[in-house]
Specification:
InterPro entries: Epimerase_deHydtase, NAD(P)-bd_dom_sf. This is CDP-paratose 2-epimerase. It holds the Pfam family Epimerase. The structure is a single chain. The protein has one domain: NAD(P)-binding Rossmann-like Domain (Rossmann fold), CATH 3.40.50. It contains 11 helices and 15 strands. The strands form 4 sheets. It has a 7-stranded parallel beta sheet, with helices on both faces. Strands 9, 11, 13 and 15 form a 4-stranded mixed beta sheet that branches.
Length: 349
Amino acid sequence: MENVLVTGGAGFVGSHAAAFYDDRGVSVTALDNLSRVDTLAEADADRDTAAYNWKYLEREHPDVERVEADVRDFDRLESIVEGHDGIVHTAGQVAVTTSLDDPFLDFEVNARGTLNVLEAASAAASDPAVVVASTNKVYGDNVNDVPVREEESRYQYDDPEFEDGIPETLSIDDCEHTPYGVSKLAADLYVQDYAERGEVDAAAFRMSCIYGPRQFGNEDQGWVAHFALSALRDEPLTIYGDGKQVRDVLYVEDLIRAYDAFLQDPTGKPSVFNVGGGPENTTSLLEFLDLLEEETGSRPDVSFEDWRQGDQKVYVSDVSRAENKLHWVPEIGFEEGIERYLDWTCQIQ
């Protein structure tokens, strides 16, 4: 690839994708409408990931062309897409809580925005391949139908069929979803449709918990960063549920390598991938608090509230499809990744 467009280029994942390709000598356009902080109910000025990363790209990657635009504006988007041979589509509404408050916005950004990207890619003479940031929330409450057992500090899957995690074949039907999960699933299905009909070489990456430098998490989104910053800043923390819920976690650079593996050779590849740390990189919320205390000597004051709608007791990605089809595996273990994240936070204090 010679020319890559990154939508949501001011976001956490998008800015890393832009930097990744710029470092490799690729011509990069980063598109963002710079409104993301407004869509997070509890965001504040010192946790504005978008503002920080937009300035970061300007300072550290001046060759990246930064364009303020909105994926909901199809005519503008179509003119920008032309000439690019790869698209990393990360622009989106990112919070379940916001989707419950404003499902229309959630739909327009996530579902319609993705459809616009695919239509623009299909129409472009430059024939770009497309990767789309999807989410494990597309599986809805079906994840909670997998039997789990409760241990001292975590829940674990209690069915041998899921010892490697949740596969791409888990049903998305006949279960409760959230507006966020529905909008992302609609986008996901559009990706599959355009790929299967040969309109666009495209794949949806159903992401688990992604973390790393230049992420300012908050209560609505980016919980790994939110927990770490709360510990470092001695800020109180609310856990929804009992803290034993488990997620697989993936360092952001590993995620971008997975995207790139598809974009470099999309021919004949599946149009859906689960991507996360997999069974080797899991933590519960309580276990992560213990790790943070070991690393920082600090533990935030924690209060507990009821489980939130759409939460999953355990979600672990089965990443075997990505391993087999993309020849990709996570390279950065969770403890190493957290050390890198904490080192970065020390640099910006």
